[in-house]
């Protein structure tokens, strides 16, 4: 009984999540392009500060 009370209901579970759809342009921009752009800009910024 105590174990049932402690199970959180609002936490996302792995079986409820869909995998990344490579056919969706929106998902590719949000999850791939923007993080890559941030990483590239970071390294360019670091290189500029060093010179």
UniProtKB/TrEMBL annotation:
Superkingdom: Bacteria
Membrane spanning stretches: 28-45
Keywords linked to the UniProt accession: Membrane, Transmembrane, Transmembrane helix
Full protein name: Adenylosuccinate synthetase
Organism: Robertkochia marina
Upper classification of the organism: Bacteria, Pseudomonadati, Bacteroidota, Flavobacteriia, Flavobacteriales
């Amino acid at each position: 009984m105590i174990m049932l009370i402690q199970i959180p209901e609002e936490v996302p579970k792995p079986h409820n999540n869909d995998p990344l759809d490579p056919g969706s342009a929106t998902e590719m921009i949000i999850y791939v392009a923007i993080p890559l752009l941030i990483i590239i800009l970071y390294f360019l910024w670091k290189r500029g500060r060093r010179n």
